[in-house]
Amino acid sequence: MRYDVSLRRWGKRVLGLVVVKNLVTVDHAVKEHLITTVEGNPKISTTECGLRITSIFTRLKASAKGRRDRQQVGDNCHMLYALKQKDGLVTNLASARLLAESGRQILALLADQIEADTVVYMPSGYSLSRIMGKRCANAFGAQLIDGVFRKTTKLEAYEMLSRAERNGDISTPDKRSLDFRLKKSDGFSLKDIPVPYRHLFTPLHLNPSFRGDIRDRVVLVDDLLASGQTLSVAASLIRRMPGVTSIEAVCLFSDV
Asked: How many helices (H) and strands (E) does the chain have?
């Protein structure tokens, strides 16, 4: 982790950003944890089910020292949480504009590489996924479709956990630990579940009230790529629809 002498008392440089107390700002010169420039982006990933995911901004794994020193807030993606104003993090207009300008340039590059007829964004309590979906649809000349999916409720998550215990997929002590995590959360999110247990949960479902027609080349959009499970489930649901010829995904921030 590289430090700026002038910021040693007040903050640290992480994720290609400067974090001073709760303020997250863009610093294009710092590329140890996030590449915020056009150079070095996008990142291409492939899930176990074969889903191709293109991420606009590339997150990089921190050094051992960086992992010891880094702040724990922000789920290792401080700017995303600042844009959502979660974990007490905020950003400023200048930094948002810097990131948006790089994002527009990278998305313009993707428009020459990705062919899409339909864009579907992942459900979220925040507007960022929908904003990303709208920008992708405009860049790709595709139709943006709303309300395709709904998130798993906390009650459904409890039921999935109980089923896993009955089937012997999880021990009783581990179930109790996950029950406690669910109890503390406002709603169900895979980000609140340790990675080894995420396979026990289905993070989203088709919205029963959705009556639209999804066909041809589909691009799924999300704000953050972690394990890829949510996008994999979404792709599996979309593949069952008649007329769909291909599926790939775009994320704002990559995995590490």
From this structure: 7, 13
Q: The tokens of 41 are what?
A: 């982006």
pTM, full prediction: 0.88
Beta strands in 76-142 (DSSP E): 90-91, 118-121
Gap between the Cα atoms of 90 and 171, Å rounded: 39
The residue type of 187 is G
- Boundaries of every domain in the chain: 5-150+206-253, 153-201
Label the pairing between strands 17-20 and 52-59: unpaired
Could you tell me the CA-to-CA distances from 125 to 88, 150, 225 in Å, in that order? 17, 11, 17
Distance (Å, whole) CA 18 – CA 183: 33
Q: How far apart are CA 27 and CA 16, in angstroms?
A: 6
Biggest alpha carbon–alpha carbon distance for the chain: 59
Amino acid identity at 184: K
Cis link prior to 173 (omega < 30° from 0)? Answer: no
Question: 175 forms bridges with which residues in the sheet?
Answer: none
- Check residue 31 and give its pLDDT: 65
Each residue of 214-227: pLDDT tens digit? 999 999 999 999 88
Task: Check pLDDT > 50 for residue 11.
Answer: no
Determine the Cα–Cα distance for residues 18 and 15; give it in Å rounded to an integer: 8
DSSP code for 16: T
Angle, CA of 180, 183 and 184, to the nearest 5°? 90
Q: How far is CA 143 from CA 53, 80, 98, 103, 223, in A?
A: 19, 25, 27, 20, 19
My answer on whether omega of the bond before 42 falls inside 30° of 0, hence cis, is yes
Paired tokens of 36: 């915020």
